[in-house]
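Morning, I've got a small favour to ask if you have a moment. It would help a lot if you went through both lines with me. Thanks so much in advance, here it is.

***
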Amino acid sequence: MRILIAEDDALLRAGLAALLEDEGYEVVTASGVAEFLASARAKVPDLAILDVRMPPTFTDEGIRAAVEVREMYPNLPILVLSAWVEQSFATQLLAQGSRGIGYLLKERVGRVEQFLSCLERLVAGETVIDPEVVAQLFARERAAAPMASLSEREREVLSLMAEGLGNSAIAARMFVTEGAVHKHIRNIFSKLDLPPDHESDRRVMAVLQYLQTDSIS
């Protein structure tokens, strides 16, 4: 599997490359967005890993590059790394669709087994959102219904959905039955006014509604 890494921090870039090469992956690195996009065009990677903040402005270059390469290759799994929680970037990234999209804090890289598991999940088409991102967003107060109408249990289920977990994994995490999880999700869809629609993914729409809800100042 070919992994393309875009990271301006030379030490982190080399560390990521060494870690993945030790696992048997082919690794191509880039220190900037232009080099990353050129490498992606030259040969389609199987997975892309990008830092959120890249030269020259160190604002949102990584996110914009992720969006651009995703437009080039809609099925390309992408993992974005950030030093801290940046809600707007997570929302912008997920707006294109959540399949094979990941958003993790850089500190997770040090937890090697978990990090490698996240990469495997992304390649399998799952969504991987850092638990800390979810936790911080849920800690913020919500302005009004419908998000505020969710029960504590429903908010817990939605937070795990935002991490990309399926019903069985949510049930295991909460120590409840899959039937109970299904019921909570059905209630979430109802309260968020998300009727069945074959042209959209209600799980993704529920998570996006949550991420896009403004906090009370």
About this structure: DSSP finds ten helices and six strands in the chain. The longest strand covers residues 2-6.
